[in-house]
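User: Please fill in residues for this 360-position structure.
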């Protein structure tokens, strides 16, 4: 099985269901299937062959999701770039990966142009985003919508060669804290197996369950927040970038069934005047990090970042809830078991890697 097989299945079985929602935009599974086929055809037309790399520099968007699935169809390997990194770091990764195509959000075009001479392998630059119908005025860039619009409404089905489970799916880069960032290639078989494992413990693979996507899609966490929910026919509520007040509103009002959050996200919503608590499902990912050894004065969330003030995990039927409480031991949820968590407690300690915002 390949990543895009799940998209095709749900497009047949529940094609009108939402695949994703963002800022009032909606796209169904059937629409997403058609869009990914056209993007895949554009990749072929650009001369990319199976195994070729394409770099993606963008914040979260519906198009970012489509790129993962379109690339999977034709064996092209996305290389996500961290938009918080410096342009020379982008250039190093693009050159190291040998990316032949770069797709970038419009807010990054000038910065990319400044280092484009160091991106030797790239032969096609695509500008993503902007108002409907807007075209880029920068020389050397093609507009994303115009680029895929050149493809036939019904592009030829099937990649130039069969894409199998042993083919590369995407390539992430390490943080580079001890040297230059290093590429880590994830294959179709490994990622699909991971999706199945997540589906067995998170909502047990319920179609229609809505996942909040607030973490960057450039990060390894894209498996939890984005690819896994779509593998079982869920839908995505996509947030371009983190905003504390908006996060609280979304959790309170938008029927979020599933969220993958890092501990540092909990700070601002907890300390805003008139704050509201919101319970969302969670997965106890690591018994040591979310287990019986945790104490109220020093707790660690599933991301491993120390939490001052603490929390306790209590059983609540088949779920558990994490709340700030007095000095007592925490009751653990078994690793891999679902529960519900209410964000609370004092400010998470700062973490250098989180501040740098690097993928890896």
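Assistant: Residues filled in for all 360 positions:
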């Amino acid at each position: 099985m390949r990543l895009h097989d799940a998209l095709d299945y749900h497009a047949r079985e529940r094609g009108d269901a939402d695949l994703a929602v963002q800022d009032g935009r909606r796209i169904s599974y059937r629409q997403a299937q058609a869009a990914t086929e056209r993007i895949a055809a554009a990749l072929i037309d650009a001369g990319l062959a199976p195994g070729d790399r394409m770099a993606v520099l963008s914040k979260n968007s519906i198009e970012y999701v489509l790129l993962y699935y379109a690339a999977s169809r034709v064996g092209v390997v996305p290389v996500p770039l961290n938009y918080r990194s410096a342009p020379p770091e982008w250039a190093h990764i693009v050159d190291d990966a040998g990316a032949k195509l770069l797709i970038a959000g419009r807010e990054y075009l000038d910065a990319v142009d400044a280092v484009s001479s160091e991106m030797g392998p790239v032969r096609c630059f695509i500008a993503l985003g902007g108002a409907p119908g807007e075209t880029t005025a920068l020389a050397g860039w093609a507009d994303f919508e115009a680029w895929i619009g050149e493809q036939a409404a019904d592009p030829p089905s099937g990649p130039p060669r069969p894409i199998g489970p042993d083919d590369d799916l995407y390539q992430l880069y390490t943080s580079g804290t001890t040297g230059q960032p290093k590429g880590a290639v994830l294959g179709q078989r490994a990622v699909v197996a991971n999706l199945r494992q997540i589906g067995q413990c998170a909502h047990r693979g319920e179609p229609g369950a809505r996942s909040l996507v607030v973490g960057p899609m450039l990060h390894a966490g894209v498996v939890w927040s984005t690819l896994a929910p779509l593998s079982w026919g869920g839908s995505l509520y996509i947030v371009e970038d983190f905003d504390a007040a908006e996060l609280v509103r979304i959790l309170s009002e938008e029927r979020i069934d599933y969220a993958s959050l890092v501990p540092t996200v909990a700070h601002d919503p907890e300390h805003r005047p008139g704050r509201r608590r919101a319970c969302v499902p969670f997965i106890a990912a690591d018994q040591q990090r979310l287990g019986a050894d945790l104490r109220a004065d020093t707790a660690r969330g599933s991301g491993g970042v120390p939490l001052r003030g603490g929390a306790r995990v209590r059983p609540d039927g088949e779920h558990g809830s994490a709340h700030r409480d007095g000095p007592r031991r925490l009751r653990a949820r078994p690793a891999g078991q679902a529960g519900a968590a209410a964000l609370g407690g004092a400010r998470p300690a700062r973490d250098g890697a989180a501040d740098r915002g690097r993928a890896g």
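For context: The mean pLDDT is 76.
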